[in-house]
Amino acid sequence: TERARLRYMIRALGGKYSGHLSKWHTHLLARENGKTNKFKKAFEWSIPIVN
């Protein structure tokens, strides 16, 4: 799946993948347009959103 490929690439480049979001994360990878709770929290916590 696309998510599995992204998870693999993130780890291959030395990053960490997490299925949840906390204010300690550095980025959110998202394709949604702001309707999810993760997207809203990332915006609230000033976490950069990459799509």
At a glance:
This protein is mainly alpha-helical.
Structure description:
- This is BRCT domain-containing protein.
- Helix 2 (37-44) links the parallel strand 1 and strand 2.
- The protein has 2 helices and 2 strands; from the N terminus they run H-E-H-E.
- Helix content is 37%, strand content 8%.
- The mean pLDDT is 90.
- The longest helix is centred in the first third of the chain and has 11 residues, at 2-12.
- It has a domain at 18-51.
- Strands 1-2 form a two-stranded parallel ribbon.
- The protein has helices spanning 2-12, 37-44; strands spanning 28-29, 49-50.
- 2% of the residues are buried.
- With 51 residues, it is mostly helical.
Question: What keywords describe this structure?
Answer:
single chain, 51 residues, 37% helix, BRCT_dom_sf, BRCT domain-containing protein, BRCT_dom
